[in-house]
Each structure stands twice: as structure tokens, then as C-alpha cells.
């Protein structure tokens, strides 16, 4: 086992230091330990030792989710030409190169993760199948497609009306649809995977995927498709919300290490608010209600830090789950501030945006400092333990 | 062993009653505590472990009395010398199963002491001189004498002779009260300070877990102690008033203030204008509810100050916790019913009232979500609606005051959690142990949220649109289904003939009929209508009816025809009659039955499940105490106190019949 972990170190630390480099260039100025700009994967290590692929899992797409979300947030904030808020000059003062860098960093990370996962599919198929059967791991199979959709919406050079945009939308949405049919079908037909048994906060990923698809479709002008995806997502969100709130005694199956995933509780209503805003072309009362619900859930989670105490003992990839929901919340608050145009709303947007950026930066720093913890031996998500259920 | 002990007691009692020589008495009295206290004290335990008595003797003497520590034993002896109290020794305190049940027959003994004191006032000073130490050392045995001194001497406050049984429920375990009395110029009793490291404070130091509330209590409001449980506080006598004052008393304010709004709406709404209701009624109701609010909150504030632990236990009670929303909702109602234009009210008032609601929601909903012991699948109960409806009431008031974003915020939170709660309650999960099986007034809370939500949505949107209508019709349907499902076996015809009769009224009538016929034979009620006891919380269940009638009037303003007018007047009538009836019942309970504030056992459960032996000991001790009492009563032939003893007898038997 030691040899395996030793072999992992260079493999993991290099893309991370690449991130650190991108971060430093993005205007932060934070000092990185190693700023060696060598983003290319060392494929020989992967080829020689497949053991690392066994331990890699879809949960690592949280990183790409967080980075793509940041890219979209920056894009939204810098696009806001009509926004008179206080944030605007701040965003404008940053060079647009910073945004492009962030975007390409996200793209690079996502691409690297995807390559790794494809390699895993090829080499470690049983592990992938086990992950697919796992009640938590399954939900993160949606994550790469959500990341791609996020990146697609944040693309600086591709207008939503372009045919390539449509093509890409279909390419990224079809897997989500297939997974939807599979997962939602399992919820109410498969005897062993009743929703009451498999529901956990990570299940929000399925809903977020639908809503993200709806938003991307609405952006590219396909109203019907957007409404259809929104309806599917909203219906299942309702069911999931009620089920998760009830907290059946038998379904307490989220390990304490994965508690950060609880943040997805407020990501889903934020995403729904964003999607509905794109569909209805204005931030109406429904959007406001969803956004406020998201805010309340956020306050509710933040006000009980004991829930996350056990997860915060040691850095793990689960920490990355903090960033993406915060980014979505900040995005929704940006839309809200644009609609309401009150100082309080602008302050709220500023605070949430800064918070999400800070959290993402902190996670990057943590990842760069402690790359060993990213692939631990006792990962609760570890593929060896996955077929337990 | 046990038999011999009892023999000693009986012998003593008979000796006393025969008024044996005065030389015998003192020596017996001094020696009896040190030697045979164990026999007195552990009647119950002896019954359980007769063989272990010899070991227990040592332990019990340690606990109960240190005989050498009372050097001037002459003084109490002189007090006892008075042979007009032949029965005072035969009152042995029960064996206190949880270690907390001292003096179950205290009420009885007090009265007897009163009688005695009236005869022999000259003795009291001597008793008084010894009283503090006696209490310290022989808490179990010498209390009757202490009470004599306490009652006789009006000027002397019971600081040193304080009742320590309620200490664990006081703020800082009673230290606050002691300091207050110190401020008044009374010296602190040094022994008093050191003595509260007792078993009691250990037992009640922490709030019981949620599971304990479910295990130890039963009934639709979780307010009855199960038969196998033992309360921390003595169950057979009245506790201090503040301890008995529940948070659900704010329900009264809810009921009355919502009536004020109803009458205000009746007076001002166009569809009911032909009734020519005077605004004076609404104003009178509003002032009454304002005064009631002031009174109730003053009393509850006192409870918070003096009995903070009791408040904490109430807050952890899975059903009572929801009633902590009641004061704020009542305040919102009061602002809404205020006899002035709502638009002129300062917006700060709204934010001030919503802030505590928001904090409480963070707490309560967070508990549901984070899935500890209070997960929703376990604690879901119709009274949870109280924690939801505050959002809608706040949204309605905010929208009426002209605030733009805040009402939407609370409406969104309320709607999301209302859906969750609604689905959960409809599912009737097997894990939901507190859902009442039969129809109970608490189900009327189902009507509250949608009816208020419809008004709030109409106000937020500026018109009574489809969303508001959907919410209103849901409320109406729930109301009707409650009425239709009213099939109480006692008055089936009533519910069927008068179709629009609210089931609350029916339940209420059943209850009143039951009350009247039970008033003669009180013992029946305890077993037969266990889940059907009147409580102040019923007031909180009237405001949904009032809310439904206000929503109907709002709907009738939009859609004015004969049906909607009839409906609005009918529902308003039902709501008003119910509130009036409830008022009469409350008065009846307050002034005739005098049990409006019964002992609030739901805050006095033990932290751990009592051991089986303790339960058994509880039963045994109570039964043996009964025997003793009967014995002592029958063995005291002479004396003036006969009447007083027979006076207390029914109360004692009534108390005993409960477990």
C-alpha cells in the first residue's frame, strides 16, 4: 500500500500545482509551494500502476464542478454591463485575461479528470459498476456533465445561438437524460433502491443536473426543452426534498466524512431559481421564493457547525463540495440583485460572491498543500468498500 | 423482617394514641429515628429485597439521619411532648422511589399541623429554633413539624426552610432565588449553599433526550406520564404556580386576538357590511387580547427568570417546542388587529417580530434536517403547524404593511416546509408515535396554514389569484373533511344532522357532556378519557377556524354571491361560538374545578428510564403508605383533627388513583 501511495504523489500533485499556478496568475498573488507549470499528465505512472485508478472515483468531479462554477460566476459578474452595483467596478478592474485563465484552468481540470475516469472505466470496470450501484457514488456520475454544461455556459468565445453550442448541449444533455431515466426509474420501481432507502443529500446532484440542462437550453433559446427538463427536475426535487427532510431512520447512510455534501441542500433551490429565471426571462416571484428558500437553508446549515465537525478533522476531497453550492447561491443572488436593485441586495451578492471565491481559493490552497490527503487509504468513498450495499 | 418493622410502627402508633406516659415518649422519639429509621424509610425497598435489609440498614442511616448531629434534642422533644398530636409520628414519608419523592402526603400533614398549631401555639417557638437544622438533617422525617412553624409564623420567610425539591428546576438551581433573598437582607444559610449537590440536581442536571420524552409520556399532546414512569417532582401535590404554567397558555392570546381580527374584518369587509357589525367589538376584543398578552407574558417571563430549567425542558419537549412560536404569532395578530392603519405602523416592528421567529425556525427546522434525535419522521405532529404558520402570518402582515421582499422570504420558507410537513403528516409514518389516533382538536391546525397562506399570497400578489384560490380551497377541503370525519360514538347524530357543525364544537360538546357526567364521579375520567383532557392548548386550536373564516370573507370579497356570504357568516359564527364555549370551559376549569393549571408532568420526567425495582417500589410504597394512613386515621379516636383528616382523604385517594 505504501508503494501505491508513493507512486500516487507525483501523479496527483502535478495537476494541483498547475492549478496553483493558474490561481496565482488569476490575480490572487498567493504564494504557491510549487509553481511548476507542467499540466500534462504523466501517463506512464497511470499505465504502470492502475491501483490509483481503483481509488479514483467520480467524487473527484467535485473539483471540476467548483472550478467551472467559479468560471460561470466570474463570467456572469463581468458580463453585467447594466449592473450599477458596487461589485461592477471591482470586476471590471480585473483583467479579462484572469477570467480566461480561470476558464481554461477549469477546462483543463475537467479534461484531466475525464481522462482519468475514462481510463478507470477501461481498466477498472468492476469498480465503476460498483460505483454505479452505490447510493452515494451514483449521483456523482452526473457531476462531469454538469461541469461541462457549466463550462459551456461560461464559454467566452461561443455564443449560445451558435450551432456548435447546440451540438455540445445535446452531447452533454443526453447522458444526463439517460442517467435520469435510470436513477429515477430505480427510485420507484427497483425494490432494493426505494427512494426512502437510498435518499441522501448527494441525490440533489440528479436534480441539479436536470435544472442545469434546463438553464442551458433556455439560454440557447429552446424554450420547450428547457421547460420539459425543468418540470422533470422540479417534480423530483419536490419528492427528494420531502424525503430528505423527513430523515427516515433507516436511510442515515451518509458517512460523517461526506457531511459537506449537505451543502447541496441549498444548491438545488438556487439552481432552480436560476433555471426558472432563464426560462421566464425575468426574476419573478417564483425565482425569489426559490432563492429565499436557498438562503434560509444556507443559514440553517451554517448555524449548526457541529454537523460538519467530524468532516473537518482532515482534509479530503469531500471538502470540495462546499464550493459549488456557494457559487450557485452567489449566482442566484447576482440575478436577484439585478432584479431588485437595492443596496442590501448588492451587499448580499457581494458577500456571497466573495465568500464563494474565498472558499474556492482556500480549497485550492489546501489541495496544493496536502495532496496526499486527496487520495487517502481510508476514503469512505473508496472503491473497495463500494459494493457494500 | 418487614413484618417486624411494621409491628414497631403500629405499636408506636398505638402507644401514642393511647397517650402513654410522658417519660416514655421522649426516649422513644429520640431513639426511634436513629435506630429504626431504616425500617420507616424503606418500607418499599424492604418489600422488594427483604433479605437485604441488614446491609441496607447502614446505608440508610447514613442518608437519612446523623443522630449525633442533633445535640439539643430536648427542644423537639418538648414539642412532641404535647400529647395532642398523637398521629404525628405515624406519618412516615414514602420511600421515594426515584430518590425524589419526599412526602407524598405533605398536603395532608400540613393541614394536620395547622390544626395542631391552632391548639398549641406556645410550642411553635421552640420548634422554630430547631427548624433549620432539622430540615437539613432529617428531610425525610421531620417535615410536618417544620411546616407547623412555617405556617404559624407569617413574618418568617422560608429561606432556610426552603423547599428544595423544586430547586433543580429553578434558575441556576435556585441560586438566583437565594441571592435575591440575600439582597433582601436575609443571611445565607451556609449549609444551604453546600447542600444542593444532591442526587436531585444530578438527576435533573441535563435535559432528557428526545427518546425519553417519547418513552415516558403519552397522549396526543405528550402530557401524561406513562404508568411505568416516575416523575421527578412529587405528583400528588400542587407544584408552585409558575412551574405549572405552560407555554401553551399563549394559545389563549392566539384565540382571542384572532377573534379581534375576525370582527375587524366582519366590520370592514364589503360582503359582510350588511351585518352592520360595530368596530367597537373588534376594538374591545383587541384590548382584551392585549391585556391577556401582557398578563401571560409577564407570568411566563417570571417563569423564565425563576424556573429557567423548567423552561428549558419545555423547549426540548417535542410538542411544546412548537408553542414557543405562539407568543410571536400572537404579537403578529395583535399588530394586525390594531385599531389603526397598518400602513402607518413602522416597518421595524415587523422585523423585530420576525427575527425571533426566524431564529426559532433555524433551530427547529435545522433539527428536522440534520437528522439527530428530532428528525421529522419521528417528531411530526399536527402541532408542528404552529411552527409553520408563523411564516404565513408574518408574510400576510408584512405584505399588508407594504414591505416588498421580506414577506416573500417568509412565504417561501413557510411553503417549502409546509409541503414537507403536510406530506409527512399525511403519510402517518409508523415512526410517528405522537400522532393521535382518534380525532383531536389538534387536527384543526391543519386548516391554519393554507387559509393564512391564501390570504398572504393574495396580499403579496396584490390580487386573489389562482394561487391564493388553490390554497384557500385546500383549507376549505381540510376543514370540511374534519367535519365529515367527525364520528364520535357519543353524538353521531349531531355530526350528521348539522352538516356544517364544526367538529371542534362536537368534540367540545362531547367533552362538556362528559365533564358534566363525570363531575359526580371523578375517578372515571382519569381512565376513560385519558387522551381527551382539556388543556389550555385547545385555545391554540381555535385560531385556525378563525383564520378559515377570515379567508372565506376575503374570498367572498372577490367572489360575492349568496353561497360565499353564507359560508363566511357560518364559519365566523362557528369560530365565535367555539371561542365562547372554550371561554366558558376555561372559566369552569379555573373557578369550579380549579384544575386549569394541573401539574405539568411533561417537564418532570426523569432523565433515564427508571429501573424496574424503582417502579415496583413506587407502587409498593404508595400502597403501604395508604395502609399506614388508613391505620393512623382509624387509630386516632379523639382529637379535633378528625375533620381535617377526612378532608384530605379524597384528595389523597384521587392522587393515588392516577398511577
List keywords for this structure.
heterodimer; A: 389 residues; mainly alpha; Glycosyltransferase; 69% helix; globular; disordered N terminus; disordered C terminus; B: 659 residues; two-stranded antiparallel ribbon; 31 helices; membrane (chain A)
Describe it.
The complex is a heterodimer of chains A (389) and B (659). With 389 residues, chain A is mainly alpha-helical. Chain A has one domain (47-373): Voltage-dependent anion channel (Glycosyltransferase). Helix content of chain A is 69%, strand content 0%. The longest helix of chain A has 28 residues, at 96-123. Chain A starts with a helix and ends in a 20-residue tail after the last helix. Mean pLDDT of chain B is 68; it is low at 1-160, 187-204, 487-501, 517-531 and 623-659. In chain B, strands 1-2 form a two-stranded antiparallel ribbon. The two termini of chain B are 28 Å apart. The radius of gyration of chain B is 29 Å and the shape is globular. In chain B, a hairpin with a 5-residue loop joins strand 1 and strand 2 (224-225). Chain B has helices at residues 2-17, 24-41, 43-48, 53-64, 74-81, 106-119, 124-137, 143-152, 175-183, 190-194, 199-203, 210-216, 241-244, 250-268, 279-306, 308-316, 320-323, 326-336, 347-370, 376-379, 385-401, 405-427, 445-461, 466-484, 492-497, 503-518, 522-528, 543-558, 562-593, 612-635, 642-657; strands at 217-218, 224-225. Helices cover 64% and strands 1% of the residues of chain B. Chain B has a domain at 240-485 and 504-598: Voltage-dependent anion channel (Glycosyltransferase, Alpha/alpha barrel). Chain B has 659 residues and is an all-alpha fold. In chain B, helix 5 crosses helix 7 (124-137) and helix 19 runs antiparallel to helix 21. The relative contact order of chain B is 0.11. The A-B interface holds A 238, 241-242, 244-249, 252, 262, 265, 269, 285, 288-290, 292-293, 295-297, 299-301, 303-304, 307, 340, 342 and B 361-362, 365-366, 368-371, 375-378, 380, 405, 408-409, 411-413, 415-417, 419-420, 423-424, 429, 431, 460-461.
Amino acid at each position: 500500500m505504501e508503494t501505491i501511495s508513493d507512486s500516487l504523489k507525483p501523479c496527483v500533485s502535478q495537476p494541483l500545482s498547475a492549478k496553483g499556478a493558474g490561481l496565482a496568475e488569476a490575480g490572487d498573488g498567493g504564494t504557491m509551494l510549487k509553481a511548476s507549470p507542467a499540466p500534462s499528465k504523466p501517463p506512464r505512472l497511470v499505465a504502470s500502476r492502475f491501483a490509483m485508478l481503483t481509488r479514483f472515483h467520480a467524487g473527484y468531479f467535485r473539483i471540476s464542478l467548483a472550478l467551472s462554477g467559479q468560471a460561470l460566476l466570474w463570467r456572469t459578474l463581468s458580463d453585467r454591463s447594466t449592473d450599477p452595483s458596487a461589485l461592477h467596478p471591482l470586476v471590471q478592474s480585473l483583467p479579462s485575461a484572469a477570467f480566461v485563465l480561470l476558464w481554461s484552468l477549469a477546462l483543463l481540470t475537467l479534461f484531466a479528470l475525464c481522462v482519468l475516469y475514462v481510463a478507470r472505466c477501461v481498466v477498472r470496470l468492476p469498480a465503476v459498476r460498483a460505483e454505479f450501484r452505490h447510493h452515494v457514488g451514483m449521483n456523482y456520475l452526473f457531476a462531469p456533465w454538469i461541469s461541462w454544461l457549466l463550462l459551456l455556459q461560461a464559454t467566452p468565445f461561443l455564443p449560445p445561438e451558435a450551432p456548435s453550442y447546440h451540438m455540445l448541449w445535446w452531447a452533454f444533455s443526453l447522458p444526463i437524460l439517460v442517467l435520469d431515466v435510470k436513477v429515477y426509474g430505480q427510485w420507484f420501481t427497483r425494490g432494493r433502491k426505494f427512494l426512502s432507502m437510498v435518499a441522501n443529500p448527494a441525490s440533489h446532484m440528479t436534480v441539479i443536473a436536470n435544472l442545469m440542462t434546463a438553464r442551458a437550453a433556455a439560454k440557447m433559446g429552446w424554450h420547450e426543452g428547457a421547460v420539459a427538463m425543468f418540470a422533470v427536475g422540479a417534480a423530483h426535487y419536490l419528492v427528494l426534498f420531502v424525503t430528505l427532510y423527513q430523515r427516515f431512520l433507516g436511510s442515515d447512510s451518509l458517512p460523517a466524512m461526506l457531511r459537506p455534501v449537505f451543502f447541496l441542500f441549498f444548491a438545488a433551490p438556487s439552481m432552480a431559481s436560476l433555471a426558472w429565471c432563464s426560462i421566464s426571462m425575468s426574476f419573478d416571484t417564483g425565482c425569489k421564493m426559490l432563492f429565499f428558500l436557498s438562503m434560509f437553508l444556507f443559514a440553517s446549515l451554517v448555524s449548526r457547525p457541529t454537523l460538519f465537525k467530524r468532516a473537518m478533522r482532515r482534509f479530503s476531497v469531500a471538502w470540495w463540495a462546499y464550493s459549488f453550492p456557494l457559487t450557485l447561491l452567489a449566482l442566484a443572488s447576482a440575478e436577484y440583485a439585478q432584479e431588485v436593485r437595492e443596496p442590501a441586495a448588492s451587499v448580499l451578492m457581494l458577500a456571497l460572491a466573495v465568500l464563494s471565491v474565498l472558499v474556492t481559493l482556500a480549497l485550492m490552497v489546501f489541495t496544493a498543500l496536502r495532496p496526499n490527503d486527496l487520495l487517502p487509504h481510508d476514503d469512505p468513498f473508496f472503491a473497495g468498500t463500494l459494493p457494500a450495499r | 423482617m418487614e413484618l417486624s418493622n411494621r409491628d414497631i410502627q403500629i405499636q408506636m402508633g398505638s402507644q401514642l394514641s393511647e397517650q402513654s406516659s410522658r417519660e416514655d415518649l421522649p426516649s422513644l422519639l429520640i431513639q426511634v429515628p436513629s435506630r429504626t429509621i431504616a425500617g420507616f424509610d424503606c418500607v418499599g425497598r424492604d418489600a422488594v429485597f427483604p433479605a437485604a435489609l441488614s446491609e441496607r440498614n447502614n446505608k440508610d442511616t447514613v442518608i437519612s439521619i446523623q443522630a449525633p448531629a442533633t445535640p439539643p434534642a430536648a427542644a423537639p422533644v418538648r414539642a412532641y411532648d404535647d400529647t395532642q398530636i398523637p398521629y404525628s409520628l405515624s406519618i412516615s414519608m414514602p420511600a421515594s422511589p426515584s430518590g425524589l419523592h419526599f412526602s407524598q402526603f405533605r398536603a395532608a400533614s400540613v393541614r394536620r399541623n395547622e390544626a395542631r398549631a391552632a391548639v398549641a401555639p406556645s410550642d411553635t417557638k421552640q420548634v422554630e429554633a430547631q427548624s433549620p437544622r432539622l430540615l437539613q438533617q432529617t428531610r425525610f422525617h421531620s417535615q410536618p413539624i417544620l411546616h407547623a412553624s412555617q405556617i404559624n409564623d407569617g413574618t418568617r420567610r422560608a429561606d432556610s426552610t426552603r423547599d428544595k425539591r423544586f430547586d433543580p428546576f429553578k434558575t441556576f438551581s435556585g441560586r438566583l432565588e437565594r441571592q435575591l433573598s440575600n439582597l433582601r437582607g436575609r443571611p445565607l444559610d451556609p449549609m444551604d449553599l453546600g447542600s444542593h449537590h444532591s442526587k436531585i440536581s444530578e438527576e435533573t442536571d441535563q435535559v432528557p433526550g428526545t427518546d425519553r420524552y417519547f418513552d415516558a409520556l403519552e397522549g396526543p399532546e405528550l402530557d401524561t406520564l406513562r404508568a411505568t414512569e416516575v416523575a421527578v417532582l412529587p405528583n400528588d401535590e400542587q407544584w408552585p404556580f409558575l412551574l405549572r404554567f405552560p407555554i401553551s397558555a399563549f394559545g389563549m392570546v392566539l384565540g382571542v386576538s384572532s377573534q379581534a381580527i375576525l370582527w375587524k374584518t366582519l366590520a370592514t369587509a364589503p360582503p359582510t357590511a350588511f351585518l352592520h357589525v360595530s368596530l367597537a367589538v373588534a376594538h374591545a376584543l383587541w384590548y382584551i387580547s392585549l391585556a391577556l398578552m401582557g398578563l401571560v407574558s409577564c407570568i411566563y417571563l417570571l417563569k423564565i427568570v425563576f424556573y429557567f430549567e423548567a423552561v428549558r425542558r419545555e423547549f426540548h419537549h417535542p410538542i411544546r417546542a412548537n408553542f414557543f412560536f405562539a407568543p410571536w404569532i400572537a404579537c403578529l395578530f395583535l399588530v394586525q388587529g390594531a385599531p389603526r392603519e397598518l400602513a402607518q405602523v413602522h416597518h421595524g416592528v415587523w422585523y423585530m417580530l420576525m427575527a425571533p421567529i426566524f431564529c426559532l425556525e433555524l433551530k427547529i427546522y435545522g433539527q428536522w434536517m440534520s437528522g439527530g434525535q428530532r428528525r421529522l419522521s419521528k417528531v411530526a405532529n399536527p402541532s408542528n403547524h404552529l411552527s409553520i404558520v408563523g411564516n404565513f402570518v408574518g408574510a400576510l402582515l408584512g405584505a399588508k404593511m407594504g414591505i416588498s421582499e421580506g414577506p416573500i422570504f417568509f412565504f417561501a420558507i413557510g411553503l417549502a416546509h409546509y409541503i414537507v410537513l403536510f406530506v409527512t403528516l399525511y403519510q402517518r409514518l409508523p415512526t410517528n408515535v405522537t400522532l393521535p389516533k382518534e380525532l383531536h382538536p389538534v387536527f384543526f391546525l391543519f386548516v391554519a396554514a393554507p387559509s393564512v397562506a391564501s390570504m398572504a399570497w393574495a396580499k403579496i400578489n396584490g390580487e386573489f389569484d389562482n394561487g391564493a384560490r388553490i390554497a384557500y380551497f385546500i383549507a376549505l377541503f381540510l376543514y370540511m373533511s374534519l367535519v365529515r370525519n367527525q364520528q364520535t360514538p357519543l353524538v353521531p347524530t349531531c355530526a350528521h344532522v348539522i352538516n356544517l357543525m364544526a367538529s371542534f364544537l362536537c368534540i367540545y360538546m362531547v367533552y362538556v357532556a362528559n365533564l358534566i357526567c363525570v363531575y359526580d364521579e371523578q375517578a372515571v375520567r382519569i381512565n376513560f378519557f385519558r387522551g381527551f383532557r382539556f388543556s389550555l392548548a385547545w385555545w391554540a386550536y381555535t385560531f385556525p377556524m378563525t383564520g378559515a373564516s377570515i379567508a372565506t370573507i376575503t374570498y367572498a370579497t372577490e367572489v360575492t354571491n349568496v353561497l360565499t356570504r353564507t359560508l363566511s357568516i357560518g364559519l365566523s359564527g362557528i369560530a365565535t361560538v367555539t371561542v365562547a364555549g372554550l371561554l366558558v370551559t376555561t372559566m369552569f376549569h379555573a373557578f369550579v374545578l380549579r384544575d386549569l393549571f394541573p401539574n405539568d408532568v411533561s417537564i418532570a420526567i426523569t432523565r433515564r428510564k427508571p429501573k424496574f425495582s424503582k417502579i415496583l417500589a413506587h407502587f409498593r410504597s404508595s400502597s403501604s403508605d395508604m395502609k399506614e394512613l388508613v391505620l393512623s386515621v382509624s387509630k386516632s379516636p379523639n382529637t379535633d383533627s378528625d375533620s381535617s383528616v377526612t378532608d384530605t382523604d379524597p384528595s389523597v385517594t384521587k392522587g393515588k388513583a392516577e398511577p
